Amino acid sequence: MAEHRDPSVPDAPVAPWKRHIVLQLRRRDRTQKALFLELMPAYNRLLEKAELLVQFSEKLHPEPNDVTSTTHQGSWEEDSRTDSDQVPSSATLRVKWQEEEEGLRLVCGEMAYQVVEKNAALDTLESELEERQSRLAGLEASVAQLKEARAHLAEQVEVGRARNTAQRAAYDTLRVHAGLQEAELRRLEEEARDLLDRLVQHKARAAAERNLRNERREKIKQARVSLELKKAAKRTVSISENPDILPDGVRDRTETPVLAAELESLESEAREKWKRPFRSASATSLTLSHCVDVVKGLLDFKKRRGHSVGGAPEQRYQSIPVCVAAQIPTRAQDVLDAHLSEINAVCFGPNSSLLATGGADRLIRLWNVVGGRLEANQILEGAGGSITSVDFDPSGSQVLAATYNQAAQLWKVGEAQSKETLSGHTDKVTAAKFKLTRHQAVTGSRDRTVKEWDLDRAYCSRTINVLSYCNDVVCGDHIIISGHNDQKIRFWDSRGPRCTQVIPMQGRVTSLSLSHDQLHLLSCSRDDTLKVIDLRVSNIRQVFRADGFKCGSDWTKAVFSPDRSYALVGSWDGALYIWDVDTGKLESSLRGPHCAAVNAVAWCYSGSHVVSVDQGRKVVLWY
Asked: 610-614 and 407-412 as β-strands: parallel, antiparallel, unpaired?
């Protein structure tokens, strides 16, 4: 079937639907023609045979008058053909004709039977053709629906492409803007680093200048005292126990009351040092030259203790509640989400009712323990980085914290802002502890140094260089103990420049805890063990292990109970483990509120309750 074109429009394009219909009609012609290719020739042959039979039947039924003539004619013809054969009789011809008639009838029956079969097959094929035509109509309808759906999807694709193009353009714009913002951020970070470096340098210069001024002031005071002593050395003075009766040499110096007060304080300190009071003037009379030697020795002793020459003597030991027997906690009494992020440090004040916590949110929160509950007291602000350690001074009036901002900061309880910043480290400060006085402190840092600080003057009085960065420090009478990342515990004499002893561990040391009698040291390390060191003989007395206990971080803190009977630590799975120090037996393991690793624990000085903090911002009070 040829395609129809409009003659008025030359080479007019044929619509796609017309081409599709033509193709469908051609396909239908081919399928229907294939069904009749065998039937039509058979039907034509059947018609031809039927015509032949009709002709034979007409020939076999001649007229009665013609029978004889035909017979004679045939006989004559036969006679003419074959002279030797006899002429057949009419009866023979009749019989032969009847046989042929019967044969033709059989053939006609067979032909009729074939016609019936062919008609039945034709009906079947026509029904199949109708069924296929109905299926074709359904398929054509579905094709039309699919074409409509395709057109709709094509429209959606076009819309999506347009939207993608617009979004790509917006993305390119945002990427360019983000690049500019990143460049600006890098510039601001560089400026911030420069400002921070300049601030640190300024702080260091200020500290150096302050140290220099203090040293000059000390030298001037020492020179003045030496001059006064040299002038007074020419006279002989008797020392009396009655403070109201002064020798003439001292009475003449009433215009220097500081020196008189210093002499009295030194004399009282000498009595405490050597436990040998001076005798009365009636029993003993000393020359002032001998007194000068004694005073110089006392001045040297006082300087070694960290006091200023012209200052009043300071009380070294504060009244701390005495714990007769610590109580093992058994249950969680109070649970709070105390900070905005991970909590790294916790510490009790000397009165056991004041608690301090510090975390990665750069805040120190003070809590009151009242009736088995934690009540918010105060928030100490101004820390320059994450809090890694907190400590109360012996009087409980000051809080010292180590921060990731390369400094330690000092607060006064009751004041929200930082009182003093101890800058001088070049890396994160990991530990900050008061010494036995409220005016001296020790810090440890990842810059591989341990520093001693004079808090009255806010300057570093001593820097100790170590081979490994420090994770924790504790202080005794005249000793500083530091735990390090190189699996060693080092002992430093605060009166000498060198390390006095090194004790190796089997893992990185994460914390140290000194007993109140200063005879035992508790260490926690990353080999998942706690060790008790007897400082009298400098050896490891106990090693604590437990199934399930694992040290969760490099700053996990373990503590002694106030009576040194138990050791307490938190594990990576939120459990608390308590061992008996004397027997080495695991006394208890507490589970419940903590769902993250416990970073630090604290046992109050009265021994009645325990507080633990974790990486999930929780503070738990245990009784």
From this structure: unpaired
pLDDT tens, residue by residue, 259-314 = 444 445 544 544 443 333 333 333 333 344 444 444 444 444 334 444 433 334 44
- Is the pTM here over 0.70, yes or no? no
d(CA 471, CA 488): 11
Nearest to 528 by CA among 544, 511, 504: 544
Question: Quick one: tokens of 200?
Answer: 């640190």
Distance CA 128, CA 426 (A): 95
Q: How far apart are CA 443 and CA 463, in angstroms?
A: 10
Structure tokens at 552: 């969760």
Going along the chain from its start, the domains and CATH numbers come out as 16-61+93-191 (no CATH), 332-622 (2.130.10.10)
Q: Please give, one letter per residue, the 3-state secondary structure of 132-160.
A: HHHHHHHHHHHHHHHHHHHHHHHHHHHHH
Taking 50 as the pLDDT cut, the residues of the chain under it are: 1-4, 6-10, 66-85, 239-263, 266-267, 269-320
Give residue-wise pLDDT tens across range 593-615.
Answer: 999 999 999 999 989 999 999 99
Per-residue pLDDT, 235: 63
Pull the structure tokens for residue 56.
């034979």
The residues, ordered by sequence, that sit 6+ positions from 370 with a Cβ below 8 Å of its Cβ are: 353
Q: Which residues of 553-579 are buried (b: 16+ CB within 10 A; e: fewer)?
A: bbbbbbbbbbbbbbbbbbbbebbbbbb
